[in-house]
Amino acid sequence: MATFFRRLANAAPSLLRYNALLGTQSKIHSSNFRFPIGAIAAASGGVSYLYYVSSSDMVHLDPNSEEASSKVALKSGKWIEFKLQDSARVTHNTQLFRFSFDPSETLGLNVASCIYTRAPIGQDDEGKVKYVVRPYTPISDPDARGYFDLLIKVYPQGKMSQHFASLKPGDVLEVKGPIEKLKYSPNMKKRIGMIAGGTGITPMLQVIDAIVKNPDDNTQVSLLYGNVSPDDILLKQKLDILASSHPNLKVFYTVDNPSQNWKGGKGYVSKDMVIKGLPPPGDDSLILVCGPPGMMKHISGDKAPDYSQGELDGMLKELGYTKEMVYKF
Length: 329
Prior knowledge:
It comes from Cucumis melo var. makuwa (Oriental melon). Its cofactor is FAD. By secondary structure, the protein is α/β, with parallel strands linked by helices. It is built from eight helices and 17 strands. Strands 9-8-11-6-7-10 form a six-stranded antiparallel beta sheet, with helices on one face. It has a six-stranded parallel beta sheet with strand order 15-14-13-12-16-17, with helices on both faces. α1 packs across α5. 37% of the residues are buried.
């Protein structure tokens, strides 16, 4: 296919089609049914995009196939090259990248896991190649075969994000993983609250997708998603569609710089927002947190120097949560 991104003149049909796809996907149990997976609607300056797998990339869903489930593209501890299939702008500083691999394989991620990416940035004094390495969480379905998607915020001085921005279709990216984070299992908690900022939405989306596509998972999910402005909200259309079609998912947005017609929250995530929007402290509750360092410090405290969870601090501690009730991505 020429590109997996199609600009739509009218957003409504795309949303209806994706909504129908979501409803169908959660109820599929037949290994003989064929349908495109990975559909995501993303808003960018009022223009809607829908990307999907073309008919040539249709896959068989066969949850009972041990052979299919065992074929994974990632090789633990080894850097693997993946080819860029296409990319598209999502916001003024965020891009979406799709990388392809053998269509008979899955990437090899559990929920919730991330991958390491690396890019060469010159040579050291001994003439050896130096690399910049960064972790990212794919936003595509971990069960998707033949591709994975990364949502990347491109910073002017960001060595890795600038490398992403320079990639053209056909170029390769070196990836290593999986790096397991939270080991999610269906119904592990009755209620999961999420606090995300910016691209911190990516691991949340991985968990949300796992819950809503499983008809036997009854977890109640509530998301507080903070951004600088309404235009910075990533994948808002997809989140809105998921929330409107799944009663067990609630989404609340807050922005630092609201527009004149903004109807969501205003300012940083506050204690009042947490009290009203997230599950209270308790053994059946889990709060997930992911965002920029300043936000993490304010909400939950930083991770330990060795990247373990460390002690709970910040707003959540003040509200009575314990470290066992909070997970920091």
